[in-house]
């Protein structure tokens, strides 16, 4: 009997642990698989094709709200249907296929749950009825908060004779749609059925709750208990860590929360070019709390709400405008569950995957502890305790100038304003190239032995076989070359003649495709700051030779959509080429007082507007390409397009001649298909 009681008690503890809003000691990494208006990149069929690329790196992928929305083309934050899963991102069948493919690759899919508010399709209170498994679900006018829309809903209800809930909103109001009363038994019944459908029918792994300031935290706790969900994270948009912690407590610790305090600390360090600001995260980020909250911190540095959306009306962008790699390096080394933003991953896939390799090799989890190693204006360094070793992360403009003792640490990675080191007692091999697809005749991979044994070597195979002491042996720091084709590289540490830990990398190496140099045109409008006669283009990056400060004086102008644009052409010489810019006016001695922030990794014909607002003393810039252009970078002026003799790709890049590869191009204002 005692054994039975002990078993039941242990089972109860296990179930309670499982029902928690986020697992403790979790070493996974999440990807936000969309950005604002990512209707192409985040289609279910597109994301599904990336499953192999994500596998082994992203354990969770948060996708857009998948139900049919009120608008024809929508990001899903105007929900209309719960059980109709045909959205702007694909059909229900495509959604199910993606979720299943992800699951087969050990990737969980996180649903965007938008339940604060709901749309109507028949007046103010005409919610659609839905039937699921023989049961009809429909929000009613009595499910709308009594004070919805600042009293406007009550006024409308009096006009139409509708009856609202007797309860006021128990969170912040929002005037976009009808705010639901989560004290209503009908609302609770619908949400619980909906979440059961998401988890147990569609196959989602967990929830991201939108706009949780709009209703009481206790409702999230109740919904999660009913769903028995393992992964739940709420968007409690607040930079004060204490209020975020209070929300987590309000859920009964049955949900994690996005760590906005962490995000704002990283943003401030970058914007102020003062990396010691990260010291503030010890008191402002919930991921650095040494108590019970690190487990519930989902950290991030940018998302769809703060990204630069061009000229979206009524919207103030707050993106990470520079040092994206350093921001992600810090994010991926620290405790909490990191959530990588999709635009960052699309720009730096190999670098970010290598950082994730280092995090997982060290065994950093959401509850890891850390200590500050160094702090200054030019760099900031922490030692994070992993289950397999201690990871030293250094970020900042002088990150690679910090002298780290080789007697204690071995360098794994370094790049623009960041570096990773691992303590020698980790006793592990390391390969500096992440798994994935590469272009080039050969791929060079540097193998490193992380060991307290100074004579440690490495043994490896390229056919997927487990290395032995008789396999190919090399010294630490050796760079091996892998040929074209698919290679499964396995590397093991060899110390004292004993084969130790083994790591695996899978590469698909393709020969470099012939590339025709392409010309991009970079436009800038400076009406808001009054730079009317010329603009200096200071440019660098990629294969482009950097200009001397303050850059090339540009006077060429054109008028598009009623605005005057300066423009200059640049030639890209390879597929992954790009150019960085700073726009300014003045001479070398005084241009710094009238310059913009950095614009990074421009790869196609683009349009920028210099705004009158400033960020750390520099004018901000909005990318308005999608607003100005008709098709991804081609001028919308009809006469100019028809007279243009050049061919353009759909991404806006101008070819130097007639296209030689199959595809769709723009020429003389028309789409041209080359077969």
Automatic annotation (TrEMBL):
The keyword Signal applies. The keyword Nucleotidyltransferase does not apply. It comes from the Bacteria. InterPro entries: GH, GH13_cat_dom, GH29D-like_dom. Residues 1-19 form the signal peptide. Keywords: Signal. GO terms for biological process: carbohydrate metabolic process. Residues 28-359 form the Glycosyl hydrolase family 13 catalytic domain. This is Alpha-amylase. It comes from Prevotella melaninogenica.
């Amino acid at each position: 009997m005692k054994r039975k009681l002990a078993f039941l008690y242990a089972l109860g503890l296990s179930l309670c642990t499982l029902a928690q809003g986020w697992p403790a000691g979790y070493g996974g990494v999440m990807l936000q698989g969309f950005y604002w208006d990512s209707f192409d990149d985040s289609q279910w069929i597109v994301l599904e094709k990336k499953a192999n690329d994500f596998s082994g790196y992203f354990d969770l992928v948060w996708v857009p709200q998948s139900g049919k929305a009120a608008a024809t083309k929508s990001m899903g934050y105007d929900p209309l249907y719960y059980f109709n899963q045909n959205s702007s991102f694909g059909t229900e069948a495509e959604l199910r296929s993606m979720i299943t493919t992800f699951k087969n690759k050990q990737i969980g899919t996180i649903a965007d749950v938008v339940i604060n508010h709901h749309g109507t399709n028949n007046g103010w209170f005409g919610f659609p009825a839905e039937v699921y498994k023989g049961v009809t679900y429909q929000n009613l006018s009595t499910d709308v908060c009594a004070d919805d829309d600042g009293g406007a809903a009550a006024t409308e209800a009096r006009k139409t004779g509708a009856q609202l809930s007797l309860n006021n909103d128990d969170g912040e109001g929002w005037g976009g749609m009808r705010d639901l009363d989560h004290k209503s038994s009908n609302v609770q019944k619908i949400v619980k059925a909906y979440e059961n459908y998401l988890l147990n029918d569609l196959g989602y792994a967990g929830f991201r709750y939108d706009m949780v300031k709009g209703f009481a935290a206790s409702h999230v706790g109740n919904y999660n208990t009913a769903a028995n969900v393992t992964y739940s994270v709420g968007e409690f948009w607040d930079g004060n860590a204490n209020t975020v912690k209070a929300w987590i407590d309000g859920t009964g610790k049955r949900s994690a929360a996005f760590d906005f305090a962490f995000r704002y600390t990283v943003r401030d360090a970058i914007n102020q070019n003062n990396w010691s600001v990260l010291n503030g995260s010890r008191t402002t980020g919930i991921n650095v709390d040494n108590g019970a909250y690190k487990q519930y911190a989902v950290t991030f540095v940018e998302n769809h709400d703060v990204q630069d959306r061009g000229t979206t009306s009524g919207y103030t962008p707050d993106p990470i405008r520079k040092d994206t790699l350093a921001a992600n390096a810090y994010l991926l080394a620290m405790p909490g569950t990191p959530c990588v933003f999709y635009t960052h991953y699309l720009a730096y896939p190999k670098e970010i995957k290598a950082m994730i390799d280092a995090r997982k090799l060290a065994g950093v989890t959401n509850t890891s502890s850390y200590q500050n190693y160094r702090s200054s204006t030019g760099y900031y360094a922490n030692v994070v305790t992993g289950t397999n070793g201690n990871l030293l992360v250094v970020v900042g403009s002088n990150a690679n100038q910090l002298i780290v003792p080789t007697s204690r640490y071995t360098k794994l990675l370094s790049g623009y304003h960041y570096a990773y080191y691992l303590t020698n007692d980790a006793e592990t091999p390391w390969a500096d190239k992440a798994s994935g697809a590469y272009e080039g005749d050969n791929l060079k991979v540097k193998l490193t032995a992380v060991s307290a044994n100074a004579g440690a070597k490495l043994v490896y195979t390229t056919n997927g076989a487990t290395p032995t002491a008789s396999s190919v042996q090399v010294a630490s720091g050796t760079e091996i070359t892998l040929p074209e084709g698919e290679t499964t590289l396995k590397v093991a540490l060899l110390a004292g003649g004993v084969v130790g830990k083994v790591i695996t990398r899978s590469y698909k190496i393709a020969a470099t495709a012939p590339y025709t140099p392409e010309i991009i045109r970079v436009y800038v409008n400076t009406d808001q700051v009054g730079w009317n006669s010329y603009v200096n283009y200071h440019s660098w990056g990629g294969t482009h030779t950097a200009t001397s400060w303050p850059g090339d004086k540009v006077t060429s102008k054109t008028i598009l959509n009623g605005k005057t644009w300066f423009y200059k052409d640049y030639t890209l010489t390879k597929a992954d080429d790009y150019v960085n810019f700073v726009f300014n006016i003045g001479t070398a001695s005084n241009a710094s007082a009238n310059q913009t922030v950095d614009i990074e990794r421009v790869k196609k014909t683009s349009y920028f507007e210099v705004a009158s607002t400033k960020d750390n003393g520099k004018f901000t810039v909005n990318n308005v390409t999608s607003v100005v252009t008709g098709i991804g970078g081609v001028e919308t002026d009809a006469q100019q397009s028809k007279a243009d003799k050049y061919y353009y790709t759909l991404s806006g890049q101008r070819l130097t001649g007639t296209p030689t590869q199959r595809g769709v191009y723009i020429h003389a204002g028309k789409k041209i298909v080359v077969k």
